[in-house]
Amino acid sequence: MTATASAIPHLIIIGGGFGGLWATRALAKSSVRITLIDRSNHHLFQPLLYQVATAGLSSPDIAAPLRTILRKQQNVDVRLAEVTAIDVVKRSVTLDGASTLDYDYLLVASGSTHAYFGHDDWEPHAPGLKTLDDALAIRRKLLLAFERAETATSEAERDAWLSFAVVGGGPTGVELAGTLAEIARHTLKQEFRHIDPSKAHVRLIEAGPRVLSAFPESLSAKAKAQLERLGVTVLCGAPVADISEHGYQIGETFTPCRTVLWAAGVAASGLGAMLGDAAVVKRDRAGRVQVNADLSVPGHPNVFVAGDLAAVMQDGKAVPGVAPAAKQMGAHVARNIKALIDGKATAAFRYADYGNLATIGRMAAIVDVRGFKLSGLLAWWFWLAAHIFFLIGFRNRIAVLINWASAYWTFQRHARIILGKHD
Amino acid sequence: MTATASAIPHLIIIGGGFGGLWATRALAKSSVRITLIDRSNHHLFQPLLYQVATAGLSSPDIAAPLRTILRKQQNVDVRLAEVTAIDVVKRSVTLDGASTLDYDYLLVASGSTHAYFGHDDWEPHAPGLKTLDDALAIRRKLLLAFERAETATSEAERDAWLSFAVVGGGPTGVELAGTLAEIARHTLKQEFRHIDPSKAHVRLIEAGPRVLSAFPESLSAKAKAQLERLGVTVLCGAPVADISEHGYQIGETFTPCRTVLWAAGVAASGLGAMLGDAAVVKRDRAGRVQVNADLSVPGHPNVFVAGDLAAVMQDGKAVPGVAPAAKQMGAHVARNIKALIDGKATAAFRYADYGNLATIGRMAAIVDVRGFKLSGLLAWWFWLAAHIFFLIGFRNRIAVLINWASAYWTFQRHARIILGKHD
Predict the structure, then answer these.
(1) Rounded CA gap, A411 and A377, in Å?
(2) Closest to A417 (Cβ–Cβ): which among B39, B59, B144?
């Protein structure tokens, strides 16, 4: 560190997701030193993660190294490390329990993970989807289920291996269930000699009254109909009471099922709890930090939170935990930090909601853009265009387009490679 | 199993590599039931495995599910399982220690793995490359080494993390070393703030007098010169005496080095030892089975071996353990089994050597086709065309071409994603 460098304020950004990366980029031309810390080496395009889990795309299609994305931004130092402590009084962050970095400004954008509402014992039997490693574990589990069914020695065992359940009727659950049905009905056709994969049961289980509850009721109903057309059984108002390696329980009914996926609960990153006394820095039930209007943390005007970790209310509703909101928050925090450096006042954040889209499966999606509603094939093309457009990196866009075009015409999913020793 | 089916002879093929898959395909129209057993769900295009290890390609680019490849061949039953026993007297194969399958004919084509010549304690410090899982583990190790160098707290530590050694100057070792030098010199340019990746030392260590010893001496020398041009230090006549997590020892000299890769030894699959009494079924030092001229196992005319597991001498030289030899053996065994079924005599195998190619790195390769020798850029184009041509599956060829074209122009390697928790 040179003498000049130390005069420039130091901003630590925790998390290279949409919030952290958009803040970093917005400060490319500012006189600030940035250390961007992430525990993985890549930015992940999470909206397409379910495609990796269901063998449609491979990991590098939806991820790019943070160093590569930021190679030309000279004021950024990327660090592959886990944050193990934050001291908002001393203004320092501890990495891997070993080294400590001081900051002038801090942005915590460490996102969220899946949660089991106090049923952590369900996790081994119902994996969730938040990282590339999760996606590869789910892919493995799905593909092995059909292999196990093929060699099952009893009908009951075969049926249990051909039974698939996705718990949670939000966007991820709907995507997983819809794609699973497509795999069973089309992708695996002709590949097995002792089972008919299209006889697989795919069930989507939602505790609330409808799927995709963030959408208007009419679109939820359309989504349910599209799921059923793809071959998914949709169970609403069905809270899961237990999950084991043998199956799941709803009310008094136990269903044998060897493959349960979890898409029901989201909990904010544990780093929120390190930002100060719980009486001052309040967190909601999911662990999200209740930030000030300018996204700073109460009591610490130099500490900000963006993305899924931030609980922001607007017009009486919570700003949703989606990529556009995280990007907007990240960019807003960047503006506020610039203001503070320049001795100016920070501004309140306001989420611009450009609409809501969800994909369901082959040629099926729903779109709600400021009251303009679409469903079915047209919505699916809209969803496809939006997601290709927002994918980071030129190469990835082309590769993803080719994989999808090929998957679309052939019903094949090219990434059906089981990694890791089978056991 | 119907009554008619059981009248048709049953062939078990162990291994879905080049030998097993080519035998399977050659019997598509024969009246034989085939069970193809592999412990992974995919056929792997092993000649490009080093590209996955060095982050140029992703797993699905060079692998395709065996079920997909064989979906239209109705006389094949694909089984994902590990063979745990073979009984050539009872004519049966045991899968996963659990179920047993009887056979009329058996083809063992389970290939080879890397070996440490009695130094198994080196394995954790010097991983080898034979499966996709190996490739991903090596990719992780390589990419993390640069991350560790970036945060090293002493110059000695930094140098050790920026020191890379590849043990073994055969085709795999040369490919790994050449590509590693390219990554350090070009791919990672501008990405780090505290190290200069191009200062990395890449050493290729060969115990024998020259690299790529299967080629004529003049081409070996050209390969060495091309490696040095790419930035690799080539050490010949340098047998490694020890490898630890801190580095490696050659003679009296210890070199600190955190990343050692193993490309030196090959041992045949352990299944060779299950084919009968060692006095009758002889195996060479690498564990390869010394088969009869028709590729059958001595004493068992219905049991065949093909590919890397077979020791075949021709004109006083060993048939090399390369993909074309395995394919030819697989197809030959298929013909011999058809002959046996038809009550005819089997034929002796003869390897048709169409030439030898090895790639070294960006625009560098050597080619020896029946005495016609090429090196450098032209040889590289030749190698590229041959490998793209032989890649299985239309989609993969296009995807690989695009990845390579993009890597070629941008010096980028798109698959630089570290999977698994860092620690």
Answers:
(1) 16
(2) B59
Mean pLDDT of A150-165: 96
Are B3-39+81-114+267-341 and B120-264+356-410 in the same CATH fold?
yes
- Structure-model confidence comparison of residues B189 and B394, the more confident one: B189
Longest dimension (CA), chain A: 74
Q: Tokens 């289980």, residue?
A: A205
- Identify the pLDDT of residue B394: 55
Cβ atoms A169, A204 nearer than 8 A: yes
Structure tokens at A420: 């890791």
Neighbours of B314 (CB within 10 A): 14
Judged by DSSP in three states, A203 sits in strand
CB atoms within 10 A of CB A357: 22
pLDDT at B402: 72
pLDDT single digits (tens) B363-400:
899 999 988 999 999 998 888 888 888 876 656 676 77
Query: Cβ distance A43 to A69 under 8 Å?
Result: yes
- The single residue listed with the structure tokens 């490309």 is B263
CATH 3.50.50.100 fits A120-264, yes or no: yes
Q: Which residue of B has its CA nearest to A407?
A: B395
Angle at A135 between CA A132 and CA A136, to 5 degrees: 90
- Which two three-digit tokens encode residue B46? 């092993």
Instruction: Decide if A395 and B416 are in contact by the 8 Å CB cutoff.
Output: no
Please judge whether A414 and B395 are an interchain contact, meaning their C-beta atoms are less than 8 angstroms apart: yes
B58 chain-A contacts, CB cut-off 8 A: 58-61
Phi, psi of B204 (to 5 degrees): -110, 120
Q: With CB atoms and an 8 Å threshold, state whether B71 touches A190.
A: yes
Location of structure tokens 């990991």? A59
Report pLDDT digits (tens) over A302-344: 999 999 999 999 999 999 999 999 999 999 999 999 999 999 9
- Coil, strand, or helix at residue B261? strand
Task: Delimit the domains of chain A by residue range.
Answer: 3-39+81-114+267-341, 120-264
Q: Are B58 and A63 in contact (CB < 8 Å)?
A: no
Q: Is domain B120-264+356-410 annotated with CATH 3.50.50.100?
A: yes
Give the domain B3-39+81-114+267-341 fold. Answer: FAD/NAD(P)-binding domain (3.50.50)
Could you list the active site residues of A?
175
**Residue matched to tokens 């590769």:** A399
Is 80 exceeded by the pLDDT of residue B401? no
Please identify which residue in the block is written with the tokens 């450009």. A354
Contact B87, B128 (CB under 8 A): no
Q: How far apart are CA A64 and CA A16, in angstroms?
A: 11
Q: Which of B78, B191, B420 sits opposite A67 (nearest CB)?
A: B191
B175 tagged catalytic: yes
| Residues A119-137, mean pLDDT to the nearest whole number | 94
Which residue from B37, B11, B38 is spatially nearest to B26, judged by alpha carbons? Answer: B11
A142 within 8 A of A47, measured Cβ to Cβ? no
